């Protein structure tokens, strides 16, 4: 039961247990509201038998106190079991999702975009939080309590009970019939929402280019269409819900009418007495209340299925596992007949074999789209290979836990990701337990001193979202400082000096020379100048190793490499 609930509602074990408690709490609360009805029933009998004497007054006094106490305790129990437990579960759910996303292979993110994932973690979690605190236990509780009370009614008089409960299956039938339709509407609504969020995010990210190309108007037109679409979808969903919920609620209202009608007939025939008739009327007036309330929020309950499916897609995705103990001997990286495709059937790398030796710089060069970035990503197990294997110091990286593996790597990407924090803390990402002194040494080695010194708070200056207050070169120097700080035995560089000016480039290159001593360095080089000092060059073209060797040998015997060197020499002569 707990496992089914966990799967069905994307809950933790504790969350599933709390959901059961929440439903039971709602049942107890619904039933507690029937106690005053019982008291009233006795009062009517007393009144009909000549009034309330002193002894009975005490009975009603104690009865009222007990009713209030039970209602209060039931409400308190229900509050704890639904609201508080749901907020705790919501926190657990977000952490579980974040943990899962940390372990999911990057191939998953290639197919999902940021807006969608943000929507799942924030939007879906918030929707489920409200549904599980306010609606799901209330609905389940009202179904159970109504069934229970209905069965009790049958013990009194089956005809009157039938008159009271016939509306329940009809209302449920309408509800169940509507569930699929509402789910369909809701799915469309969520899709429209995600499309709009993507559009807004893209618009903000590309605002500069849109302005530069005078394309704002055209783009905004598309965005307005998405906004209209969301509005339309929401209206349709709301209308659909309103139609079914109002129908089901109306049917429930008929229940009181049929109780009154049946009761009157049976009373006239003398088959029931007035107190029983009165009791059924009282019960019928309360019986449907919890269910009516729950039906109002039916759409929210039904829509959780779409949110849960989206969440389960993340939670059920296989993670990259592996041993966390590193058994490597040395740090040679070997690509052994590696084949790879980002998408099934679209081969990107084919039979790639080369060795990047420890203590050497291996440069990956080749035409655009040749597979250089892919090779460096695979070396860090950002993706798993489709064929062959990659080893580091003889250890197959597909058998190593990615987190443990990455402890061996320092990576400098072309697109540096910075956090809205100080320069100091951005560098400390390289090694979280580094002291301020160690961070400063790394910063100096990466030549951050020059620009940090000009900022009002030096290394403690905030750098804005993704370092928007820094230049490309400054951003990259922070990234290089991280690599200095981490001081890992394997270094992956993606043309690390690409956005540095000539002066800084020279300084950085001399610092890198110190850093890479005795290390395995795999560098993606777009400029031949960077490559000339490498120990080995691997030319990747069309996803295959076209040539490999020292720069000198390739200049003599190669084809693509000398051609690229020649082209770049020509481009250096180009001027505006
Ligand atoms: N995430 C991805 N999903 C699908 N295909 C991809 C992805 N990343 C790259 N590719 C494709 O893989 C091939 C190799 O790309 P890769 O980025 O490795 O080449 P590259 O040599 O680094 O190119 P460049 O020098 O332009 O950066 C290209 O055809 C590219 O379109």
From TrEMBL:
A Pfam cross-reference name: ABC_tran
Ranges that cross the membrane: 20-45, 57-77, 135-156, 162-179, 242-268
Compartment annotation: Cell membrane
Domain ABC transmembrane type-1, first and last residues per copy: 22-303
Location of the ABC transporter domain: 333-567
Membrane topology designation: Multi-pass membrane protein
GO molecular function, one term: ATP binding
Keyword tags: ATP-binding, Membrane, Nucleotide-binding, Transmembrane, Transmembrane helix
Domain of life: Bacteria
PANTHER family in the record: ATP-BINDING CASSETTE SUB-FAMILY B MEMBER 10, MITOCHONDRIAL (PTHR43394:SF1), ATP-DEPENDENT PERMEASE MDL1, MITOCHONDRIAL (PTHR43394)
Descriptive protein name: ABC transporter ATP-binding protein
Organism listed in the record: Claveliimonas bilis
């Amino acid at each position: 039961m707990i496992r089914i609930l966990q799967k069905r509602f994307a809950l933790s074990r504790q969350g599933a247990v709390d959901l059961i408690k929440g439903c039971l709490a709602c049942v107890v609360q619904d039933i507690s509201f029937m106690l005053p009805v019982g008291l009233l029933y006795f009062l009517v009998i007393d009144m009909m038998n000549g009034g309330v004497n002193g002894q009975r007054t005490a009975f009603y006094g104690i009865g009222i106190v007990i009713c209030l106490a039970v209602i209060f305790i039931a409400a308190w129990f229900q509050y704890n079991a639904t609201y508080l437990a749901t907020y705790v579960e919501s926190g657990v759910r977000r952490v579980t999702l974040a943990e899962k996303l940390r372990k999911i292979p990057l191939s998953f993110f290639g197919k999902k975009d940021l807006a969608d994932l943000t929507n799942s973690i924030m939007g879906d979690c918030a929707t489920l939080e409200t549904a599980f605190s306010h609606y799901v236990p209330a609905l389940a509780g009202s179904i159970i309590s109504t069934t229970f009370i209905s069965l009790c009614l049958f013990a009194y008089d089956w005809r009157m009970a039938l008159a009271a409960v016939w509306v329940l299956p009809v209302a449920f039938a309408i509800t169940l019939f509507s569930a699929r339709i509402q789910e369909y509407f809701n799915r469309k609504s969520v899709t429209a929402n995600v499309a709009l969020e993507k559009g807004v995010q893209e618009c903000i990210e590309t605002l500069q280019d849109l302005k530069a190309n005078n394309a704002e108007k055209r783009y905004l037109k598309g965005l307005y269409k998405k906004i209209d679409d969301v509005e339309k979808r929401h209206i349709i969903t709301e209308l659909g819900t309103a139609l079914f919920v109002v129908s089901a609620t109306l049917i429930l209202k008929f229940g009181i009418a049929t109780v009154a009608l049946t009761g009157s007939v049976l009373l006239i025939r003398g088959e029931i007495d007035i107190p029983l008739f009165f009791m059924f009327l009282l019960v019928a007036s309360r019986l449907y209340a919890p269910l009516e309330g729950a039906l109002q929020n039916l759409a929210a309950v039904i829509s959780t299925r779409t949110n849960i499916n989206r969440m389960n897609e993340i939670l059920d995705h296989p993670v990259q596992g592996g041993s966390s103990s590193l058994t490597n001997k040395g740090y040679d990286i070997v690509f052994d007949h590696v084949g790879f495709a980002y998408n099934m059937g679209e081969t990107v790398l084919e039979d790639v074999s080369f060795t990047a030796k420890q203590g050497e710089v291996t440069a990956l060069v080749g035409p655009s789209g040749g597979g250089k970035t892919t090779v460096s990503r695979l070396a860090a197990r950002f993706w798993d290979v489709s064929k062959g294997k990659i080893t580091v110091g003889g250890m197959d990286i597909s058998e190593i836990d990615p987190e443990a593996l990455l402890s061996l790597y320092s990576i400098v990407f072309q697109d540096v990701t910075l956090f809205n924090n100080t320069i100091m803390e951005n560098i400390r990402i390289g090694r979280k337990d580094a002291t301020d002194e160690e961070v400063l040494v790394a910063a100096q080695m990466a030549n951050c001193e020059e620009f940090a010194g000009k900022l009002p708070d030096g290394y403690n200056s905030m750098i804005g979202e993704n370092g928007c207050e820094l230049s490309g070169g400054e951003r990259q120097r922070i990234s290089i400082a991280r690599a200095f700080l981490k001081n890992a035995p394997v270094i992956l560089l993606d043309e690390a000096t690409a956005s540095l000016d000539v002066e800084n480039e020279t300084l950085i290159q001399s610092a890198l020379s110190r850093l890479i001593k005795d290390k395995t360095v795999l560098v993606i080089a777009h400029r031949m100048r960077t490559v000339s000092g490498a120990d080995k060059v691997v030319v990747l073209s069309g996803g295959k190793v076209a040539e490999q060797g020292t720069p000198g040998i390739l200049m003599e015997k190669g084809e693509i490499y000398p051609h690229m060197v020649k082209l770049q020499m020509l481009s250096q002569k180009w001027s505006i």
